[in-house]
Give the backbone structure.
Amino acid sequence: MISSDAVLGPDHVPGGPAIRLGGVVKRYGDVAAVNGLDLDVPAGICMGLLGPNGAGKSTTMRMLTAQSRADAGEISVLGFPVPAMSKQARALMGVVPQHDNLDEELTARQNLEVFARLYRVPRRERAAAVDRALELAQLTDRQRSRTVDLSGGMRRRLLIARGLVHAPRAVLLDEPTVGLDPQVRQQLWTLITALRDDGVTVLMSTHYIEEAERLSDEVALMSRGRVIARGRPADLVADHAGVRTEEFYGPPRRLAEVERIAADLGFTTRRTGPSVSVLRAEKITPQARERLGQGEARASHLEDVFVLLTGETVE
Amino acid sequence: MNADADAAVRTPLRTGRPHGPVHRFELAAVAGVWRRELALYRRYWTTTTFASVVEPTIYLLAFGFGFGSLVGVVAGYRYIDFVGTGVVATAVLFTSAFPGMFSTYVRRTFQHTYDGMLSTPVDTHELVTAEATWIAAKSGVYGCAPLLVAMAFGLPPAPTMLLVPLIAFVTGLGFGLFGILVSALVPSINSFDYIISGVLTPLFLVAGTFFPLDQLPPWVAVLAQFNPLYHCVELVRHAVFGPQPLADLGHVGALLLFAALMWVLAVWRMRRKLID
């Protein structure tokens, strides 16, 4: 566990949220990137911020580090009001950006050393902190390699290790596995899970459904700059999409018919490319089955919930 | 994830705590940025040094020996000594304004280096200060190169020459900040051409580097008072040929004022670019 002697901010309430956003608005001209966002992230959990591109996830992340200033609303991180005391918050927080901004001409070790200094890791602890971060990124053997010579997966691991070099109390991960192959993604998932297990508060934006479902204790679904639903992934699915979903395939006329019958029977449907998904399929009675026919059953998942609630799609 | 990495994640650490009171301006933040600059400099010091030393030396040799053979004595000094002291300002300009413009622009726009730094406990004014003082430190060192070359060609050494690195530092600070300001003003990297041709070249030519300004119309001498390079040239000449305390105080004041004004403007513009 991370040292418990860290001094949290004046707004910190024991047992209260590590991150708090209340009524936050951020506009760019006429466009509201974040539009009345309310979100509390309890300490020590992994909260997934799930939404399609343009939902306001990255803007939210930038506001938490005061790199973007809210037009309205209140933000606090680890008890420090942001932006007023954002510097204190940033000292206790790690940030892993969506886009790789490592120093390509520096070695892996130098990148970590620079950030250890920026994060004010005390001199006597700096070498150990960098060694630990290198181990965490599995780059001990490549610590003398220039970053430009590392593979995409290695760079992403280094980027995450850079945000963890000071053993932060909270970590912001902005699309941590975007563009990575499945093997590297799996490695990073293990890393993120271990962080959460270690008591670090993790706020992770993603547009990968599987990632949000597997890693998050809670998921906040974002659409058009606000949270439209939040809860444990299983609860969200159970509440909105039921246990099972059936996919019906066929020509357009057949799909239209399924939609009409399902609506007539009180079921919620959604179009998924070449099929119609009927949610809460476990409630299809034998009589309803006669009218609907047989679809391909599968477990309901977060994507069903997301599309149902927003009408938008995610990957 | 291998066993080592898994163990690393689970190793207790005691670094995740505040490092003490957080202040509005912290030297530790500046030192963190310097650490990065030092690492980069160690990699590229040979090319940086080559460019920073050779270019002004060529100016010195070309003008000193080229014009020197025609002119002989200017303002009471051997022409090569006159130019050798003047080209210090040229070296300072080249080693401060250009990195201030290009490096800052590239790091902010293409590499997003500053976005990474600002997610740590570093604020824009600390970042700008760190970048500018690093640039100024290099100017302080490389600005002396023309003087050393001139000494090799007979410029007599003087104890007050030891002030030249300091003069070069203060001038480099102002022009480094000027470069940072410009980098946050231009719409694209190509726009630097306007600044180089339209601003820096006139400043560089009308600073008393290659010819005394009193040979020009009086209004040029008046304008020169607003040219920081002119004050640098005057200070360096006085440091080499003999101080003029009252005038030098004015020159130092002008350079400090220039640096202070550029700091305020550079921080303001960079904050607007980096924080939305």
User: Anything to note?
Assistant: The first strand of chain A starts at residue 17 and ends at 28. Chain A touches chain B through 58 residues (CB under 8 Å). The radius of gyration of chain A is 22 Å.
